[in-house]
Amino acid sequence: EGDLVFVSGNPGRTDRLRTVAELEALRDREFPRTLDRLMRLEVLLGTYSARSQENARRARTELFGIKNSRKARNGALAGLLDPKLMEQKQAAEQQLRAAVSANPALAESLSAWDRIAQAQKAIAEQAVDYDLLELGQAFNTHLFSYARQLLRADEEQAKPNGERLEEYQESARVSFEFQLLAEQPVYNDLETLKLADSLTELVERLGWAHPLVQRILAGQSPRERAAAAVGGSKLASVAVRRQLYQGGRQALRRADDPMIELARLMDPEARAVRKIVDVQHEAIRRAHAQIGQARYAIEGASSYPDATGTLRLSFGAVKGYQQDGQPVPFQTTFAGLYERAREQSFRPPFDLPPRWVAAQRKLNLATPLNFVCTADIIGGNSGSPVVNRAGEFVGIIFDGNIQSLDADFLYTEDQCRAVCVHSSAIIEALRKVYGARPLADELLGLGKRK
Questions:
Q1: Positive or negative, the Cα torsion across 395, 399, 400, 401?
Q2: What pTM was computed for the model?
Q3: Which of 104, 142, 372, 402 has a Cα at 20 to 30 A from 276?
């Protein structure tokens, strides 16, 4: 404990330079709405999974992602609901705006904060339609995503590159085609369940009498419409998607696929609401550019930039923290792993693999397993190496503690901790659990040299 450590990696994204108006929009509108949807999906897929082991297998990856997203949004919302965090953000913004106001050379930047606040209000007015239609939350099935990608690819790729939607520009072609044409299992019962539930949400949010709702349902209930669209679609086949993608407009017109027709039916309204919201996002982007220039003029290079997925070096100390008034130690051991599993009667997710149960007698249970440190990390840092002041490899980042979930907006060393697997645990497990002693020796420089 107390050792200095360094972390090199590619943190994905932080939002620490967002304005107070943007944080308020996240706190009051976006996060609560997202959490409502995630919890709805978690109940839906959890109930489906409980019916059989096969159902649980089919939904496992998607359900895990939903639970993980729900955990992250819960933590971020908790941070924004903390008056101290918001007071700190408000004070910093007021200080910067006062400095900008006092500098005549930065007069053009004075209105940037107000323009962002106005744009947020305009986005809020379109939020329901944007989420349901453009983000596709009312059409929650892989098959609909394929259908819309095929239709939009045909329409967008006929335009000059600079006039296309961003995801259909030439720079994104490789990733787009990989996503569209990747092999992925599609289970009709699961896709029907998800689509029926999301169509039901469409009715709940827009109302049964809404003209678009009536056109989409076409005289059927959400469940009937979902069953017909999923059951009649051929888009689960990569070969069919490839044929339609390469065949273009004529192939799509001849496809006679209900999911393509569903996507065609709602796309004009989805595009219309996206156009409105995109204008506001562009206004926000330009306002942030002005704020950034003003901040640099006042603070110089001392201002810490947001993470953007580019390489950066972080540092900190190995250090425990407090949770609910109780101290949390800076590291765990193999002994704690087995003790925790026994306390929970080896029930998921505390059920250890048979290989690990069998290896307990061989392990040195005092070996450190995980440790925490104050290095500033965020999503994208998983897999980052941790080294000490001597340049020795001591661990790998794989998570942050629950208290660090609001680090997207503000980082402090009080509670935020990066969680790392200890290098000693890697060596001990390779030798005594996985039977890979030669690999462990090689990692330590003890292998045969050529």
A1: negative
A2: 0.89
A3: 142
